[in-house]
Amino acid sequence: xxxxxxxxxxxxxxxxxxxxxxxxxxxxxxxxxxxxxxxxxxxxxxxxxxxxxxxxxxxxxxxxxxxxxxx
Length: 71
Description:
Elements: H1 2-23, H2 27-56, H3 58-61, H4 63-70
Region (Disordered): 32-71
């Protein structure tokens, strides 16, 4: 019985936090938290794609680098 009480306590705490944020008209905060959890995996797949493009055209992406090399 003690174990069940422990599981119910944390569950209630999580719901309470969401309710408090919603009441504080901070809906954006709740959305950001949820998006953050789903963003990491999505960003990981996009990060390498952008890195590859930058590596293809380092001079066009970083004009300062090209100038420094010329110097």
